[in-house]
């Protein structure tokens, strides 16, 4: 068995690298959004032309980025969504909802103090982890049937 895993959400820490490194040797292919914040914000205007209005600037970027995001989520066997310290990450919540609506296996990676604001997102997930290593252990178990340790 092999898995394609889409790593969505917070882009300011190394959680993706921790999961990818931890899953070394497993039959897993990882996909993710563009994690260069400036490139992600400005891709629409860099490709389609400048916008004097910030709303349209952001809108163009969101639309271009959505091409990659939709492809990644649709093609994934498992979607991992990380909510960082500031839980008001609307794009992460949207990706989690989109994945849930598609019936994707969803793992949420979040902190215990965000249990209440993320309760609906957590309820849609098959697992809620607090650390990247727990995501790795879930993937290892799914692929090998082996428990940690």
From TrEMBL:
NCBIfam families: YtoQ_fam (TIGR03646). InterPro entries: YtoQ_family_protein. It comes from Ruegeria spongiae. It holds the Pfam family Nuc_deoxyri_tr3. It comes from the Bacteria. This is YtoQ family protein.
